[in-house]
Amino acid sequence: MSTGSARALTYPLLVTCGALAVIAAWVPFADIDQVSALVVVALGVLGYTAYQLGLAFGVFSTGSTVLGTVDGRRVRQQYRLVSRSWLEISSGGRPVWQPVFYEPALSVLTPTELELTGRSVLQGNTRFYPSGRVRTTEPAGKLVDNPSRPSETPAFGVARRLVLDVQPAIGAPLVGLLWVYVMNGGLGAFIAATTVAAATFTWLSAIRGSDPS
Question: Could you list the mean pLDDT of each consecutive 10-residue stretch along the chain, which spans 213 residues?
Fold first, then answer.
């Protein structure tokens, strides 16, 4: 396993820390009901992050029953505001799809042989970290194969990735309005609920393995 491949998990963990920081920042200004809601959100973020890391490191099964060397290729899924990387794996004439955390090597990956160990996906010295369970049906939306092979492996900064992942946060003000309506809060409660929702939506995109390419 290449040491560089572990960087695939750096970005989603950074976004997780950012989401928890936003939640923690509002605790001193919250009443007991609001604190309870913030704690529930924080526990949800921590719990789902732990689950995703468990899938990535093979603690939890991804549901794959295929082992050994197989043919595979990388495809990029675009569905509404969701963009993810998948490995389309051919086995016995029937393909399956494994979502993986984005690794720059994916952008230059052509159809090749992949090594499936039951806990990881290897291609040479590069390990691809699963970001979800294996699907036996094609993921929804548009699946695009690598249109070309860049001469150099591309690098996408945190700022670009955040711009892409923050798109689902467009619905955050609706969450803020709903919170104010239910809890009879004021402007402060609306701002707090909106920022927490925006951070949570952004985190969810990142921790599920968003693809910035």
Answer: 65 97 95 93 98 93 81 91 91 85 88 80 87 92 74 79 94 94 88 96 96 90
Q: Which of 19, 132, 99, 41 is nearest to 11 (CA)?
A: 19
- Strand 126-128 versus strand 82-91 pairing type: unpaired
Give the Cα separation of 26 and 118 in Å (integer): 42
In SS3 terms, the chain reads as CCHHHHHHHHHHHHHHHHHHHHHHHHHHHCCHHHHHHHHHHHHHHHHHHHHHHHHHCCCCCCCCCCCEEEEEEEEEEEECCEEEEEEEEEECCEEEEEEECCCHHHHHCCCEEEEECCCCEEECCEEECECCCCECCCCCCEEEECCCCCCCCCCCCHHHHHHHHCHHHHHHHHHHHHHHHHHCCCHHHHHHHHHHHHHHHHHHHHHCCECCC
What CA–CA distance (Å, rounded) separates 187 from 198?
16
Entry pTM: 0.91
Looking up tokens 């995109």 gives 205
What CA–CA distance (Å, rounded) separates 7 from 11?
7
